[in-house]
Amino acid sequence: MNCRTAFYPLLSVVFMAGLAGVTCIRVSHLIVPAQVGRGHDAQLHCHFNLGGNILYSVKWFKGSREFFRIGPDGTRPQVFPHLSNMTVDIQRSNVSSVYLRNIQRSNAGTYRCEVSCEGPHFETDFREANMSVVDLPLQGPIIINVQTSYLPGERVALNCTSAPSKPMAILQWSIDGEQVGEPYVKRYIDGSIATLGTPSSEANGRPSAWQNGRESDGELADDSVATVGLEFVVDLPKQMATGAFAIRRVSCTALVGDIYQSVTYANLSIVDGRSAKSIATARTPSHLLHSSNGSSANGRSSHSTWIGLVFCCIFHLVRQTAVDITAAVLRI
């Protein structure tokens, strides 16, 4: 056998044995929050398998521009200043994650994690994911037009208005813990009733506190405020049919994407008409009670008594004045 001919198969076996414990580097998961509130922080995670290779570097990109790089074991972290609106917290970043502070709208976009192994081949793998930035409401929704009390059969007409946000908040009504829809829920466009669909705004019906709120920076338009109405006729619960008082609890929930939820509650006091009349009679002085035509026997009697007292006081005052004048004249 030729020695050269025998050498090449042997070399191939040795080379393949050396690669037996080594596989390709692979980025298995890239975790980027789909939505982040403006002004909030975000942490991006990159999980990878070196496959027996030696890590050379982990690079982070937004679009095509690199903004962060870190070496093996968290060494040599680098932040690239050409993305001036990207604030990286180096102390909270490591070889498998990068921590971004004070997220702004310009930070929305596609993020890429790129992992490379040592030479001579510097094998590389990457994954990408998108992140959007939303403007969250600065406070919860406001419920207006709640009356002090309601009688059975009376119509309730409430409005719920969200604080400015982008995208606009989705508002949901519930009565006693159960979500309600049509025909009780009314959505408005310029003061007119619209169908249930994408929430819309009612500029004339928004709380005055939001007229010049976050919209003053020119970043949130008028349609960032949503208003939803709730209309229904109240009834007295069966278990309270002979009682004097009942409570119906309504709530308005504001939702923005998958990252924001705020609930506002309002209690509606329902008073049984018969019980309300008996309570009023017991607590009201007789001289203040009146019939439907504006008069009563007790009212007339009380009225005559008051007239007599007034005349009596006037008589005593005049008599005392006359006595004082007479005494003064005699002294002169």
Give the CATH topology of the largest domain.
Immunoglobulin-like
State the end-to-end CA separation.
166 Å
Assembly classification: single chain
Regions with little confidence, pLDDT below 50 for 5+ residues: 1-21, 190-205, 208-213, 276-306
Number of domains: 2
The class by helix and strand makeup works out as: alpha+beta
Corresponding CATH architecture of the largest domain: Sandwich
CATH superfamily of the largest domain: Immunoglobulins
- Counted beta strands: 19
The CATH class of the largest domain, by name, is Mainly Beta
The fraction of residues in strands falls at: 25-35%
Tally the helices: what do you get?
3
**What does the largest sheet look like?**
6 strands, mixed
**Rounded Rg:** 39 Å
Helix coverage percent: 10-25%
Q: Name the strands of the widest sheet in spatial order.
A: 2-10-9-4-5-6
The shape is: elongated
Report mean pLDDT, rounded to a whole number: 74
> Helix-strand pattern, N to C?
HEEEEEEEEEEEEEEEEEEEHH
Could you describe the 3D structure shown?
- This protein is of the alpha+beta class and 332 residues long.
- The protein folds into 2 domains: 24-134, Immunoglobulin-like (Sandwich), CATH 2.60.40.10; 142-275, Immunoglobulin-like (Sandwich), CATH 2.60.40.
- Helix content is 19%, strand content 35%.
- The chain contains 3 helices and 19 strands.
- A 6-stranded mixed sheet has the order 2-10-9-4-5-6, with no helix packed on it. Strands 11-12-17-15-16 form a 5-stranded antiparallel sheet, with no helix packed on it.
- The N and C termini lie far apart (166 Å).
- Mean pLDDT is 74; it is low at 1-21, 190-205, 208-213 and 276-306.
